[in-house]
Amino acid sequence: MTIEIGSRRGFVAMLLGGAMGLALTGAAIAQTSGQPVRVGGTLALTGPLAATGMVHKIVGEIYVEQLNKKKGLLGRPVEWVLLDDQSKPDLARTLYEKLVTVDKVDLLIGPYATGAILSAMAVAERQGKLLVHHTFGIPNLAKYDAQFPAWHMGPVPEKTVAGLLIDALAASEKPPKTIAIVTSKFPSVHFLAVGARDVAKAKGLTEVLYLEFEFGTKDFGPIAARVREANADFLYMGSIGLEGVQLLEALKKLGYSPRHHYYTYPAPGPMALSPDAAGALSTTVFEDQPPFTNNPGAAAFAKAYKERAEKAGLPYTLADVQGGASYAAWQILEAAVNATKSLDDKKLAAWIHANKVDTITGKLRFNEMGNYGDDLSKVKQVQNGKWVVVWPKEAAAPGAKLIAR
Amino acid sequence: MPSATLLGQSVLSGIFAGGLYALLGLGLSLSWRFLRVINLAHFGFIFLAAYMIYQLAGVWGLSPFAAMLLVVPCLFLLGVALQALFLRFSINEFGSLLVTFGILTITEAAIQWIWTADFRRLETPYGTASYRVGELFVPVAEALTFAVAVTLSISVWALLRFTYIGKAIRASADDPDMAAAFGVRGHGLALLLSGAVAATAGIAGTFIALIATLAPAQIFSWIGVIFAVVILGGLGNPFGILAAGLLIGVSEAVTMALTAPSWAPLVSFSLLILILVLRPGRI
Questions:
Q1: ipTM
Q2: Do residues A237 and A277 both lie within one domain?
Q3: Residue B277 has what pLDDT?
């Protein structure tokens, strides 16, 4: 069950819950008994990150329902205490304090986006709590020993992500010789773009343009004009959310389409569904397609996600990297509790450190810098209105390969 | 050195951005000058209109301009209702800032409740179309937005300057008691003007829907630059708003073309500070 506090829907849900009691949840928690295990966290349910926050909310609801249909945690039902951090890291910090000190939740799960996770991490460290989180993007800032990332991009993504990408392009039919790097100053994408400069140089690409723009830029016309003039073989855009689509639209208005083009953290729906985004590249650790969905658990999740996303009216209803990482975070938490048969934060953290966890994104280990392990990133590309994994070959969707323009 | 094409294209982009700024700022400026209402809800109304256009045109299949004919009267009524609220509770200028901020927040929440926080895009054939003129590309939707901004600015200026209603509005704002002595019905005019201001939000929202991908939180991203335009342009001065929009739009665009694009946001606020220092009696 999910208790969402701080929103109209949450208020209504609480009223209904109070009035109808166990009648609503009796079936779901048939195999559980005792006091609920309370898992607390925040998400960006409103504010500029809310579109992605919704994805994490849907995934969390699916997971908690699935848990309660089995035997919950330690035979007890699971209750997710979810608060809205309004996409504000400062508010996330306050709310995590509240979750620990006022709501007295048993376990914590991370918020969405790097800034909020960093805030939650500081609270978790101060309170000695375990924190498993979904989408932290700057491993060298993850200093707390009992925090564990679910999105496994390796300990030095500023080197490995760009390396993977350029290797994929080098193996394509038209390997690039020149690169234009245009990046938002949003922290978790900016440091990757800066790293990409060095990687591109080391791999023999000539940088013909490097631009930085502020997060929240509305007019991409002049930036598009500079990209067109640079006319690089490969456009690397350090972007988050809509920025990639905005640049593509501005480029189209100038009659220009980039040959190879990459976007760091694109809003999955608008990019996949944009008529201008054919061939757009990004990285992922999960998509609703084989070989990921060869795992029955992953397939069941992808199916459940699609149903919920359709019901919620989301334009893009396929589970992707955000949903996959979110689900993996819950899997880490469940695995640790089941293995230790405990809710003790120290025991749980010690177990996660010492073991690999099998998730829908792959086997995760947590013993390198920032508790990151293997880099599980894959390259995906927009093909026919869908994200398709194209690299490395062993992870590519059946028959898929990188299309060069 | 940037090429002439790059510079020309950037200036063109700045002119179109300036037109959009003017379109968004016009209603705010009129409301502030003639109603003494610092109407932050105007931004919420613009996005409410944009989402209504998205619903009517993108989901239900109307032409965006037919949809505009439905949306603008609805917004007019909303503006009248807002002013009725202000008159009923005698809300002063500073109070209006707080009240309209509340209304803005409620509007954002309502938009998210109805259309969710996910991104919405109105796909039209001309949304990303452009014409080539020599080496330059002229985007259709932006050019149309600019034309509407110029037309609206001229119309409002002419209305305020040459018509009885315009003169009455100005008189009522400058000296309500004296205007009333000459038979000007201040409350009625205020309701009418507030409706008209909200109607401009309806028009601006139509073009936001045509140009941009929508998300509820984007409402807040426009406030800073539009306030700069309104203050630079002078309250209640349609041509001033247009000129300020163009100044800021072109300055930002040229900054993006010549230096790092991340410097662009500094331009509008640097200009604003400069004007406030040099001409402090602007508000």
A1: 0.87
A2: yes
A3: 86
